[in-house]
Amino acid sequence: MDIEKVRSRFIKHFDGKTGNVYMSPGRINLIGEHTDYNGGFVFPGAVDKGIMAEIRPNDTNTIQLYSIDLKDRVEFDIDDPEGPKASWARYVYGVAKEMKALGVDVKGFNAAFYGDVPLGAGMSSSAALESCFAFAINDLFGDNKVAKWDLVLAGQATEHKYIGVNCGIMDQFASVFGQEGKLMRLDCRSREFAYFPFNPEGYKLVLINSKVKHELAGSPYNDRRNSCENVVKQIAAKHPENKYETLRDCTWEELEEVKAIVGEEDYNRAHFVLGEKDRVLAVCDALEKGDYETVGKKMFETHEGLSKEYEVSCEELDFLNYIARVNGVTGSRIMGGGFGGCTINLVKDDIYNKFIADAKVKFAAKYGHEPEVYPVVISQGSHKVC
After folding, report:
1. Does domain 206-376 have CATH number 1.10.10.10?
2. Which residues are catalytic?
3. pTM for this one?
C-alpha cells in the first residue's frame, strides 16, 4: 500500500502535521465454508491488501475523518449518541464507542484513510477498516492494553450495533491476528486457533471475481441453516443421552441413521458440512507436510460439495472452476457464502499466465464481461507502519 498517498491527503486536509500510519488487511479463507454456524472450523489468512490510515490526536472531543477513496469528509463528537449519518463513517464511530466501553480513554483525532481491498470480492474491507481503527485507538489512547481478541470483538460489535450486520468473527479475527506466511485454523465454537505454514513456493494464490452479485442474505441462507439445525434435532432425538448443539457434534453414522427422516435436501446439506469439517483438518495436515497437491484436491472437493450438495454456487462460478480444472490448476473453489463472488485458486507458476488469460477470454465470450483477477499474498495482520 502507498504510504505517500495517505500522508499527502492527511497533510492537505488537516493541519499540515503528520501522525502515525496504521494498516489492517483484508482476508481470504482457504477452506471451511458454511462451517461457522455449524460449530466447525474456518481457515483464513490476512492478505497484502487492506485499509491504511494516518491518525493524529487533535486535543478535542471531535473525530475528523477524510475518506480518500470517497473524497468525503465527516466530523462528529465522540460522545454524540447518534453518531454520523454517512455509513462509512459509522464504522469508525462504532469502533470508537466500543473501545471506549473497553475502558480506553478515546479522545478526538484526525484521520485520513484509503483501501485497496476490491469491493465485492469477499475479502472483508469493512473488517479491515474496523480493525485498523481499533488497533490505532488502542495504540494512541490505550497504551496497547486492550487484548487482540477484544479488538476483534469490538469490530464485530460495530457491525452488529451500528451497521446492522449480524456477522461472525472470522473477518475481524483474520485481520487482527494474521501473520505473514501463515494461515489460521479458527474453531468457531471455542475461539481456539492455531497457525499453519503457508509458503507455497512455485505456486500463486489468486482470486477470480465473477462480478456476479452475492445474494446469500435472507431466505437462501436461512434455508440452509435450518436444514443443518433440523438434522441435528433429528439426531439428538435418536440419541437423547448425548448433547448435540451443532453438526460439529454429529458423526457420519448418525447422519446415515436419519437420512430417511430428514429428506434428501437436508441430508445433502448436512453431508457437505461434515465433509467440510474433515477437509479443513486434512488441509491442516497437508500444510504441515508442505503437500500443496492435497490442499488443492480438497479445494476442488469443497467446490463440488458447495455446488452439488449445499447448492450455493451459480453457473458463472462453476464455469470458472471448470476452466481451472481443464487448465491443470492445483486447487479451485468458491470463496464465501456463494451465489456469486469469487473463486480462490492455487496455481502453479508455470501455468499461471495461461490460466488467467484463458479464464478471461472464455468467461468474456460466454458472459459478456471479463472476470476481475486479484493475486494475493498471505501477509501481516493489523500493525503500525510508522
Report:
1. no
2. 171
3. 0.91
